[in-house]
Specification:
It is a single chain. By secondary structure, the chain is mainly α. It has a domain of 141 residues. Helices cover 50% and strands 7% of the residues. A two-stranded antiparallel ribbon has the order 1-2. It is elongated, with a radius of gyration of 35 Å.
């Protein structure tokens, strides 16, 4: 037994992420995140004289902890991109869920430095760098998700495997024209054509 489909439901459109563009955007976001972490370390240690992540005697670049911080920022960007991709595949309103998740994670990264025993200025500087990183990763990946999409046409098929078919929907000009009064007289080349008189020639009969 088959169930005929409605002729107006012949197909729908579905938006899916473009894997190639999305991966390229994710890698670019990871590079930007790593550079933000690196620049933040240089500004804090070299320009402001706040030795974050390493003692002041380790110079402007710090020690191995600075490299781990930069690498960790890039890794977090890639993990966030993978999470966003999964949300775009199955979750309703993926951008809203992603914004909430990243907002809470950014808040945790901002609050965490204040739980350590470092001086207050180092806590504040680390929290600011983490805040900038969270905002940058969230905004960049949201822009990537909005651009790296493709629209698919989904064709509905009946249970017997035959695509639905039916008469097309009537358009605005498919209705029969209405007639008012007497129908126009057909053209006859043997009959004289009545022309209205010019001004001053009296009434026209």
């Amino acid at each position: 037994m088959t169930y005929p489909a409605s002729p107006n439901d012949a197909g729908t459109t579905r938006v899916r992420p473009d894997a190639g563009q999305f991966c390229a955007g994710a890698v670019a976001t990871a590079i930007v995140a790593a550079l933000i972490a690196l620049v933040g370390i240089l500004i804090c240690r070299w320009t402001l004289g706040i030795p974050i992540l390493a003692p002041a005697g380790d110079g402007a670049w710090g020690n191995a902890h600075s490299g781990e911080y930069v690498f960790g920022a890039a890794l977090i960007a890639l993990v966030a991109a993978a999470l966003l991709y999964l949300l775009m595949l199955g979750a309703p309103s993926p951008s809203m869920f992603f914004s909430w998740i990243m907002g809470l994670l950014t808040l945790a990264a901002v609050v965490y430095p204040f739980s350590t025993s470092a001086p207050l200025e180092q806590k504040g500087a680390t929290a600011i760098v983490n805040l900038v990183l969270g905002i940058a990763i969230t905004s960049l990946l949201s822009a990537v998700a909005a651009r790296a999409v493709r629209v698919q046409r989904v064709q509905h098929v009946r249970r017997d495997g035959v695509p639905p078919s039916g008469p097309p929907r009537p358009g605005p000009y498919d209705q029969a024209p209405r007639s008012y009064g007497q129908a126009p007289r057909p053209y006859d080349p043997t009959q004289p054509i009545d022309t209205p008189p010019s001004r001053g020639q009296g009434n026209w009969r």
